[in-house]
Design brief:
Elements lengths: L1 H14 L7 H30 L18 H37 L13 H6 L1 H13 L4 H8 L10 H7 L6
Helix pairs in contact: 1-3, 2-3, 3-5
Organism: Pseudomonas indica
Keywords: Signal
Protein name: Sel1 repeat family protein
């Protein structure tokens, strides 16, 4: 599903600059873009709140037992897997918001139009979760491959979990 939505997003982003419409069509596009954007924003917010809602499980105390990980490696693993699970949870609505934001930009909606947002910061903000995950992933890849392979096989890390409480549970010292 994610591959199809990514292809759709790429297609929409590639075709959007080609849209040059006469005034009545332009008006209809703005109305359509505003509705899409409003719906996408509302759905993304609801999904995000669901994905960060309290009640995520705490990792078992023995999650990293027999892996011989340093505290830094445990920390990197927790940060990466938590960001990955959060992004996976919001990916579909984030993609819809990205497409709607780009459509709003091309339709010239206030705050999204090229004149109001020349560097597409509104569109880029939608990608914040992906940036975060990629940053953690780059750091996580410093963990030796045999350890990463074992970490990838831990089911509890493949799900949403409470980051702070899990860090406490596995014995990480926190500030």
């Amino acid at each position: 599903m994610a591959v199809a939505s990514n292809r759709l997003a790429a297609l929409c982003l590639a075709l959007a600059p080609c849209l040059t419409l006469a005034p009545p069509e332009s008006e209809r596009l703005q109305i359509f873009a505003a509705e899409r954007l409003s719906n996408a924003q509302a759905e993304a917010e609801v999904r995000y709140l669901h994905c960060i809602a309290p009640g995520a499980p705490v990792l078992p105390v023995d999650t990293f037992k027999r892996l011989e990980l340093s505290d830094e490696e445990k920390k990197l693993a927790l940060l990466y897997f938590n960001a990955r699970a959060r992004r996976a949870c919001t990916e579909q609505t984030d993609t819809a918001l990205l497409v709607a934001s780009q459509l709003a930009r091309e339709a010239g909606l206030p705050e999204y139009a090229r004149a109001d947002d020349p560097h597409a910061e509104r569109v880029a903000a939608t990608l914040a979760e992906l940036y975060s995950e990629q940053e953690y992933k780059a750091r996580y890849w410093a963990v030796p491959e045999p350890k990463r392979e074992k970490l990838e096989r831990i089911d509890a890390l493949q799900q949403r979990f409470d980051l702070i409480e899990s860090a406490h549970a596995v014995g990480l010292p926190l500030p």
